[in-house]
Amino acid sequence: MPDIARYEQEGGILSNVVASGNIVITAGAVGDDLSLDVKGQTRETLAYVDKMLALAGTDKSKILFVTIWLPDIRMRDTMNEVWLEWVDPANLPARACVEARLANIDYKVEMQIIAAR
Amino acid sequence: MPDIARYEQEGGILSNVVASGNIVITAGAVGDDLSLDVKGQTRETLAYVDKMLALAGTDKSKILFVTIWLPDIRMRDTMNEVWLEWVDPANLPARACVEARLANIDYKVEMQIIAAR
Amino acid sequence: MPDIARYEQEGGILSNVVASGNIVITAGAVGDDLSLDVKGQTRETLAYVDKMLALAGTDKSKILFVTIWLPDIRMRDTMNEVWLEWVDPANLPARACVEARLANIDYKVEMQIIAAR
Question: Based on the structure, what is the number of domains in chain C?
Fold first, then answer.
Protein backbone atom coordinates (compact mmCIF):
# COMPACT_ATOMS: atom_id res chain seq x y z
CA MET A 1 0.00 0.00 0.00
CA PRO A 2 1.40 3.41 -0.92
CA ASP A 3 1.55 6.13 1.72
CA ILE A 4 -1.51 8.39 1.79
CA ALA A 5 -1.01 12.12 2.44
CA ARG A 6 -4.01 14.20 3.49
CA TYR A 7 -3.97 18.00 3.40
CA GLU A 8 -6.29 20.55 5.01
CA GLN A 9 -8.46 18.19 6.99
CA GLU A 10 -11.22 20.72 7.69
CA GLY A 11 -14.03 20.65 10.20
CA GLY A 12 -13.54 16.94 10.78
CA ILE A 13 -15.52 16.26 7.60
CA LEU A 14 -13.06 15.98 4.73
CA SER A 15 -9.54 16.65 3.48
CA ASN A 16 -9.25 19.24 0.74
CA VAL A 17 -6.65 17.21 -1.12
CA VAL A 18 -5.41 13.65 -0.77
CA ALA A 19 -2.43 11.98 -2.46
CA SER A 20 -1.54 8.32 -2.77
CA GLY A 21 1.31 7.04 -4.89
CA ASN A 22 1.24 9.02 -8.14
CA ILE A 23 -2.40 10.08 -7.78
CA VAL A 24 -3.72 13.36 -6.31
CA ILE A 25 -7.45 13.92 -5.72
CA THR A 26 -9.03 17.16 -4.55
CA ALA A 27 -12.34 17.65 -2.79
CA GLY A 28 -15.05 19.57 -4.63
CA ALA A 29 -13.61 23.10 -4.84
CA VAL A 30 -15.61 26.32 -4.83
CA GLY A 31 -14.85 30.02 -4.63
CA ASP A 32 -14.74 32.17 -1.48
CA ASP A 33 -16.71 35.24 -2.49
CA LEU A 34 -20.20 33.96 -3.23
CA SER A 35 -21.34 37.39 -4.38
CA LEU A 36 -19.22 36.93 -7.53
CA ASP A 37 -20.80 35.84 -10.83
CA VAL A 38 -19.93 32.59 -12.63
CA LYS A 39 -16.75 34.06 -14.08
CA GLY A 40 -15.57 35.44 -10.76
CA GLN A 41 -16.33 32.23 -8.90
CA THR A 42 -14.63 30.16 -11.62
CA ARG A 43 -11.49 32.30 -11.24
CA GLU A 44 -11.51 31.82 -7.47
CA THR A 45 -12.19 28.10 -7.78
CA LEU A 46 -9.30 27.60 -10.20
CA ALA A 47 -6.95 29.64 -8.00
CA TYR A 48 -7.93 27.38 -5.13
CA VAL A 49 -7.33 24.30 -7.29
CA ASP A 50 -3.82 25.59 -8.03
CA LYS A 51 -3.22 25.94 -4.28
CA MET A 52 -4.49 22.42 -3.50
CA LEU A 53 -2.40 20.86 -6.28
CA ALA A 54 0.70 22.70 -5.00
CA LEU A 55 0.09 21.36 -1.48
CA ALA A 56 0.21 17.84 -2.91
CA GLY A 57 3.34 18.51 -4.98
CA THR A 58 1.80 18.84 -8.42
CA ASP A 59 0.32 21.50 -10.74
CA LYS A 60 -2.25 22.06 -13.48
CA SER A 61 0.03 20.66 -16.21
CA LYS A 62 -0.43 17.22 -14.62
CA ILE A 63 -4.22 17.19 -14.26
CA LEU A 64 -5.83 14.05 -15.66
CA PHE A 65 -9.52 14.74 -15.12
CA VAL A 66 -11.83 17.50 -13.92
CA THR A 67 -15.48 17.13 -12.96
CA ILE A 68 -17.34 20.43 -13.26
CA TRP A 69 -20.78 20.95 -11.75
CA LEU A 70 -22.82 24.00 -12.66
CA PRO A 71 -26.16 24.73 -11.01
CA ASP A 72 -27.18 26.19 -14.38
CA ILE A 73 -25.65 24.29 -17.32
CA ARG A 74 -26.43 27.25 -19.60
CA MET A 75 -23.46 28.96 -17.89
CA ARG A 76 -21.03 26.45 -19.43
CA ASP A 77 -19.76 28.77 -22.18
CA THR A 78 -19.28 31.59 -19.67
CA MET A 79 -17.36 29.27 -17.32
CA ASN A 80 -15.30 28.06 -20.29
CA GLU A 81 -14.06 31.59 -21.02
CA VAL A 82 -12.26 31.58 -17.65
CA TRP A 83 -11.25 27.92 -18.04
CA LEU A 84 -9.51 28.77 -21.33
CA GLU A 85 -7.51 31.57 -19.69
CA TRP A 86 -6.37 29.15 -16.99
CA VAL A 87 -5.88 25.71 -18.50
CA ASP A 88 -2.44 24.64 -19.80
CA PRO A 89 -3.04 24.44 -23.59
CA ALA A 90 -0.22 21.91 -24.00
CA ASN A 91 -1.65 19.65 -21.29
CA LEU A 92 -5.42 19.60 -21.54
CA PRO A 93 -7.14 17.34 -19.01
CA ALA A 94 -10.12 15.11 -19.76
CA ARG A 95 -13.25 16.74 -18.38
CA ALA A 96 -16.95 16.29 -17.78
CA CYS A 97 -19.36 19.16 -17.09
CA VAL A 98 -22.92 18.52 -15.92
CA GLU A 99 -25.65 20.39 -14.09
CA ALA A 100 -26.20 19.83 -10.36
CA ARG A 101 -27.63 21.80 -7.49
CA LEU A 102 -24.75 22.46 -5.05
CA ALA A 103 -24.38 22.57 -1.26
CA ASN A 104 -24.88 26.34 -1.09
CA ILE A 105 -27.47 28.00 -3.30
CA ASP A 106 -24.95 30.78 -4.03
CA TYR A 107 -22.25 28.44 -5.42
CA LYS A 108 -22.18 29.05 -9.17
CA VAL A 109 -19.56 26.40 -10.00
CA GLU A 110 -17.83 23.48 -8.27
CA MET A 111 -14.80 21.57 -9.61
CA GLN A 112 -13.07 18.38 -8.56
CA ILE A 113 -9.66 17.25 -9.80
CA ILE A 114 -7.74 14.01 -10.36
CA ALA A 115 -4.06 14.69 -11.13
CA ALA A 116 -0.79 12.80 -11.44
CA ARG A 117 2.32 13.78 -9.52
CA MET B 1 -1.07 -3.96 -16.79
CA PRO B 2 -1.89 -4.73 -13.16
CA ASP B 3 -4.32 -7.56 -12.36
CA ILE B 4 -7.93 -6.44 -12.04
CA ALA B 5 -10.12 -8.03 -9.35
CA ARG B 6 -13.90 -7.69 -9.64
CA TYR B 7 -16.22 -8.46 -6.72
CA GLU B 8 -19.98 -9.05 -6.64
CA GLN B 9 -20.68 -8.95 -10.35
CA GLU B 10 -24.45 -8.57 -10.01
CA GLY B 11 -27.19 -9.06 -12.55
CA GLY B 12 -24.70 -8.99 -15.40
CA ILE B 13 -24.68 -5.19 -15.20
CA LEU B 14 -21.85 -4.15 -12.90
CA SER B 15 -19.37 -5.20 -10.23
CA ASN B 16 -19.94 -3.69 -6.81
CA VAL B 17 -16.23 -3.16 -6.25
CA VAL B 18 -13.20 -3.37 -8.55
CA ALA B 19 -9.51 -3.25 -7.65
CA SER B 20 -6.48 -2.70 -9.85
CA GLY B 21 -2.98 -2.25 -8.49
CA ASN B 22 -3.26 -0.02 -5.42
CA ILE B 23 -6.64 1.45 -6.41
CA VAL B 24 -10.09 0.25 -5.27
CA ILE B 25 -13.29 1.70 -6.79
CA THR B 26 -16.82 0.91 -5.65
CA ALA B 27 -20.03 1.20 -7.60
CA GLY B 28 -22.58 3.75 -6.45
CA ALA B 29 -23.70 2.37 -3.07
CA VAL B 30 -27.16 2.74 -1.55
CA GLY B 31 -29.01 1.36 1.47
CA ASP B 32 -31.26 -1.72 1.56
CA ASP B 33 -34.28 -0.49 3.48
CA LEU B 34 -35.71 2.30 1.36
CA SER B 35 -38.33 3.11 4.00
CA LEU B 36 -35.54 4.59 6.15
CA ASP B 37 -34.95 8.36 6.29
CA VAL B 38 -31.72 10.06 5.12
CA LYS B 39 -29.91 9.17 8.34
CA GLY B 40 -30.97 5.55 8.26
CA GLN B 41 -30.10 5.14 4.58
CA THR B 42 -26.74 6.87 5.13
CA ARG B 43 -25.95 4.38 7.93
CA GLU B 44 -26.85 1.44 5.69
CA THR B 45 -24.91 2.88 2.76
CA LEU B 46 -21.77 3.37 4.86
CA ALA B 47 -22.07 -0.14 6.33
CA TYR B 48 -22.25 -1.44 2.78
CA VAL B 49 -19.22 0.65 1.81
CA ASP B 50 -17.29 -0.94 4.70
CA LYS B 51 -18.25 -4.37 3.37
CA MET B 52 -17.20 -3.55 -0.21
CA LEU B 53 -13.86 -2.11 0.91
CA ALA B 54 -13.20 -5.23 3.01
CA LEU B 55 -13.90 -7.46 -0.01
CA ALA B 56 -11.16 -5.61 -1.88
CA GLY B 57 -8.72 -5.77 1.02
CA THR B 58 -8.93 -2.22 2.29
CA ASP B 59 -10.93 -0.12 4.80
CA LYS B 60 -12.26 3.37 5.47
CA SER B 61 -8.89 4.65 6.77
CA LYS B 62 -7.56 4.37 3.19
CA ILE B 63 -10.37 6.14 1.32
CA LEU B 64 -9.10 8.83 -1.03
CA PHE B 65 -12.34 10.25 -2.42
CA VAL B 66 -16.10 9.95 -1.97
CA THR B 67 -18.76 11.25 -4.33
CA ILE B 68 -22.06 11.79 -2.52
CA TRP B 69 -25.32 12.33 -4.39
CA LEU B 70 -28.40 13.51 -2.55
CA PRO B 71 -31.76 13.84 -4.31
CA ASP B 72 -32.36 16.80 -1.98
CA ILE B 73 -29.17 18.76 -1.27
CA ARG B 74 -30.86 20.39 1.74
CA MET B 75 -30.34 17.01 3.47
CA ARG B 76 -26.55 17.48 3.42
CA ASP B 77 -26.25 18.52 7.09
CA THR B 78 -28.43 15.61 8.15
CA MET B 79 -26.35 13.15 6.10
CA ASN B 80 -23.20 14.71 7.58
CA GLU B 81 -24.29 13.85 11.12
CA VAL B 82 -24.06 10.15 10.23
CA TRP B 83 -20.93 10.71 8.13
CA LEU B 84 -19.19 12.24 11.16
CA GLU B 85 -20.02 9.22 13.33
CA TRP B 86 -18.53 6.93 10.68
CA VAL B 87 -15.55 8.64 9.07
CA ASP B 88 -12.03 8.04 10.44
CA PRO B 89 -11.15 11.49 11.90
CA ALA B 90 -7.42 10.82 11.46
CA ASN B 91 -7.88 9.90 7.79
CA LEU B 92 -10.45 12.17 6.21
CA PRO B 93 -11.06 11.55 2.51
CA ALA B 94 -11.56 14.26 -0.09
CA ARG B 95 -15.25 14.50 -0.93
CA ALA B 96 -17.79 16.12 -3.22
CA CYS B 97 -21.52 16.26 -2.46
CA VAL B 98 -24.03 17.39 -5.09
CA GLU B 99 -27.72 16.99 -5.80
CA ALA B 100 -28.93 14.40 -8.32
CA ARG B 101 -32.08 12.43 -8.88
CA LEU B 102 -31.21 8.74 -8.33
CA ALA B 103 -32.19 5.44 -9.99
CA ASN B 104 -34.95 4.76 -7.45
CA ILE B 105 -37.14 7.60 -6.26
CA ASP B 106 -36.86 6.21 -2.71
CA TYR B 107 -33.03 6.38 -2.58
CA LYS B 108 -32.21 9.24 -0.22
CA VAL B 109 -28.42 9.07 -0.65
CA GLU B 110 -25.89 7.36 -2.92
CA MET B 111 -22.11 7.21 -2.36
CA GLN B 112 -19.19 6.11 -4.51
CA ILE B 113 -15.67 5.49 -3.24
CA ILE B 114 -12.10 5.59 -4.55
CA ALA B 115 -9.66 4.07 -2.03
CA ALA B 116 -6.06 2.93 -1.85
CA ARG B 117 -5.05 -0.52 -0.69
CA MET C 1 5.95 11.05 -11.88
CA PRO C 2 4.67 8.73 -14.61
CA ASP C 3 4.46 10.02 -18.18
CA ILE C 4 1.08 11.50 -19.10
CA ALA C 5 -0.31 10.87 -22.59
CA ARG C 6 -3.14 13.10 -23.86
CA TYR C 7 -5.21 12.17 -26.90
CA GLU C 8 -7.55 14.27 -29.03
CA GLN C 9 -6.96 17.64 -27.43
CA GLU C 10 -9.99 19.33 -28.96
CA GLY C 11 -10.85 22.98 -29.29
CA GLY C 12 -8.23 23.93 -26.72
CA ILE C 13 -10.65 22.93 -23.97
CA LEU C 14 -10.01 19.30 -23.08
CA SER C 15 -8.42 16.00 -24.11
CA ASN C 16 -10.84 13.22 -24.93
CA VAL C 17 -8.68 10.62 -23.18
CA VAL C 18 -5.69 10.89 -20.85
CA ALA C 19 -3.40 8.11 -19.60
CA SER C 20 -0.91 8.13 -16.76
CA GLY C 21 0.89 5.01 -15.56
CA ASN C 22 -1.67 2.20 -15.52
CA ILE C 23 -4.69 4.52 -15.43
CA VAL C 24 -6.76 5.74 -18.40
CA ILE C 25 -9.47 8.40 -17.97
CA THR C 26 -11.86 9.57 -20.69
CA ALA C 27 -13.72 12.84 -20.92
CA GLY C 28 -17.48 12.76 -20.71
CA ALA C 29 -18.48 10.93 -23.91
CA VAL C 30 -21.66 11.50 -25.91
CA GLY C 31 -23.05 10.36 -29.26
CA ASP C 32 -22.76 12.20 -32.58
CA ASP C 33 -26.28 12.00 -33.95
CA LEU C 34 -28.39 13.91 -31.47
CA SER C 35 -31.59 13.02 -33.30
CA LEU C 36 -31.21 9.45 -32.03
CA ASP C 37 -33.18 8.18 -29.01
CA VAL C 38 -31.59 6.99 -25.75
CA LYS C 39 -30.75 3.59 -27.21
CA GLY C 40 -29.20 5.02 -30.35
CA GLN C 41 -27.18 7.61 -28.44
CA THR C 42 -26.04 4.96 -25.95
CA ARG C 43 -24.80 2.80 -28.86
CA GLU C 44 -22.89 5.75 -30.33
CA THR C 45 -21.48 6.74 -26.95
CA LEU C 46 -20.22 3.23 -26.25
CA ALA C 47 -18.69 2.96 -29.74
CA TYR C 48 -16.89 6.22 -29.02
CA VAL C 49 -15.74 4.90 -25.64
CA ASP C 50 -14.27 1.86 -27.42
CA LYS C 51 -12.38 4.20 -29.73
CA MET C 52 -11.02 6.34 -26.88
CA LEU C 53 -9.90 3.30 -24.90
CA ALA C 54 -8.12 1.92 -27.99
CA LEU C 55 -6.29 5.23 -28.46
CA ALA C 56 -4.90 4.85 -24.95
CA GLY C 57 -3.96 1.21 -25.44
CA THR C 58 -6.75 -0.48 -23.51
CA ASP C 59 -10.27 -1.88 -24.05
CA LYS C 60 -13.61 -2.45 -22.34
CA SER C 61 -12.41 -5.62 -20.57
CA LYS C 62 -10.18 -3.39 -18.42
CA ILE C 63 -12.70 -0.73 -17.40
CA LEU C 64 -12.75 -0.10 -13.65
CA PHE C 65 -15.53 2.47 -13.32
CA VAL C 66 -18.14 4.23 -15.42
CA THR C 67 -20.13 7.31 -14.46
CA ILE C 68 -23.39 7.53 -16.41
CA TRP C 69 -25.47 10.71 -16.51
CA LEU C 70 -28.98 10.64 -17.87
CA PRO C 71 -31.04 13.83 -18.24
CA ASP C 72 -34.05 11.63 -17.44
CA ILE C 73 -33.22 8.89 -14.93
CA ARG C 74 -36.38 7.01 -15.94
CA MET C 75 -34.45 6.07 -19.10
CA ARG C 76 -32.01 3.93 -17.06
CA ASP C 77 -33.60 0.58 -17.95
CA THR C 78 -33.67 1.54 -21.64
CA MET C 79 -30.01 2.59 -21.55
CA ASN C 80 -29.18 -0.65 -19.72
CA GLU C 81 -30.53 -2.74 -22.60
CA VAL C 82 -27.78 -1.35 -24.84
CA TRP C 83 -25.23 -1.48 -21.99
CA LEU C 84 -25.91 -5.21 -21.59
CA GLU C 85 -25.28 -5.85 -25.29
CA TRP C 86 -21.97 -4.04 -25.04
CA VAL C 87 -20.39 -4.72 -21.65
CA ASP C 88 -17.94 -7.62 -21.23
CA PRO C 89 -19.92 -10.04 -18.99
CA ALA C 90 -16.69 -11.55 -17.62
CA ASN C 91 -15.31 -8.13 -16.69
CA LEU C 92 -18.08 -5.95 -15.34
CA PRO C 93 -16.96 -2.48 -14.23
CA ALA C 94 -18.18 -0.69 -11.14
CA ARG C 95 -20.72 1.94 -12.16
CA ALA C 96 -22.83 4.84 -10.93
CA CYS C 97 -25.81 6.23 -12.85
CA VAL C 98 -27.49 9.47 -11.79
CA GLU C 99 -29.66 12.16 -13.37
CA ALA C 100 -28.11 15.41 -14.59
CA ARG C 101 -28.96 18.02 -17.17
CA LEU C 102 -26.19 17.90 -19.82
CA ALA C 103 -24.31 20.47 -21.90
CA ASN C 104 -26.64 20.09 -24.88
CA ILE C 105 -30.37 19.70 -24.32
CA ASP C 106 -30.40 16.98 -27.01
CA TYR C 107 -27.82 14.76 -25.25
CA LYS C 108 -29.76 11.78 -23.91
CA VAL C 109 -26.81 10.08 -22.18
CA GLU C 110 -23.22 10.92 -21.20
CA MET C 111 -20.61 8.43 -19.93
CA GLN C 112 -17.17 8.82 -18.41
CA ILE C 113 -14.66 6.00 -17.95
CA ILE C 114 -11.77 5.08 -15.65
CA ALA C 115 -9.86 2.05 -16.98
CA ALA C 116 -6.63 0.19 -16.33
CA ARG C 117 -4.10 -0.55 -19.05
Answer: 1
